Amino acid sequence: MDLLPDLDPGLTVLETPDARSPSLHRLALSAHAARDGRTFWIDARNAASTRVFYDLVDHDRRLRSVRVARAFTAYQHHSLVRRTLQQAGPRTGLVVAANVGALYADPDVPEYDREPLLRSSLEALAGLAEARSIPVLASTAGALADRVRSAADRVITCEATSEGHRYVGPDVETPAYRGPGYWQTTIAYWLDLFGPVDAHARAAVHERVPRVEG
Questions:
Q1: Which range of residues forms the domain containing residue 35?
Q2: 152's torsion region: left (phi>0), alpha (psi -120 to 50) or beta?
């Protein structure tokens, strides 16, 4: 059973619990494994963690086709987005833009540059998704989140729970959580497996259950 949502072609924004949440890595690696080709990861705020990658991937060889480039300013980020457009080709399966709005919100970015730069980067990512018919996964943990969400084809919210990360969005609901040696299922899992119980079935069950007088 797949615990993570599928990524369709288009720009998907993942709202993460924090800027370095491994929920982005989990979703990105799942999408990377499901698609042939290379993954480009455009990083901001040092979200890309080698340790997290190796902890989550099912086999180290999958990481050979993941290319990570880090940006430390909004101008570097915009330049990396434009470069990714040039390098992406028929063998590109996925593009990830971690904390996509974070650097544009830095105080050293003038107001007159902030909006045009971010808009250009988001339009470029959305255009790449459409032109190559691939998923582009962008994350945001708060910085300019409204502006990033407005450019998305789909928004998925990730919440940290005691059992693991819960993904919620259009046609997305985490059905179960994997633990060491067990599965923790949810109501959504059983509804998907058996469907909802209709009112007539509930009434029939109620009639067959004897009432116990205390």
A1: 10-181
A2: beta
pTM of the prediction?
A: 0.79
CA distances, 79 to each of 23, 59, 66, 124 (Å): 26, 32, 19, 11
Residue at 202 is within a domain:
no
Q: How many domains does the chain have?
A: 1
List the pLDDT tens digit at each of the 214 positions of the chain. 346 788 999 999 999 988 999 999 999 999 999 988 999 999 999 999 999 999 998 889 989 999 999 999 999 999 999 999 999 999 999 999 999 999 999 999 999 999 999 999 999 999 999 999 999 999 998 778 999 999 999 999 888 775 666 788 777 665 444 554 444 454 454 445 545 656 555 544 444 445 445 4
CATH number at residue 70: 3.40.50.300
Task: Compute the half-sphere exposure of residue 109: CA atoms within 13 Å on the CB side of its CA.
Answer: 19
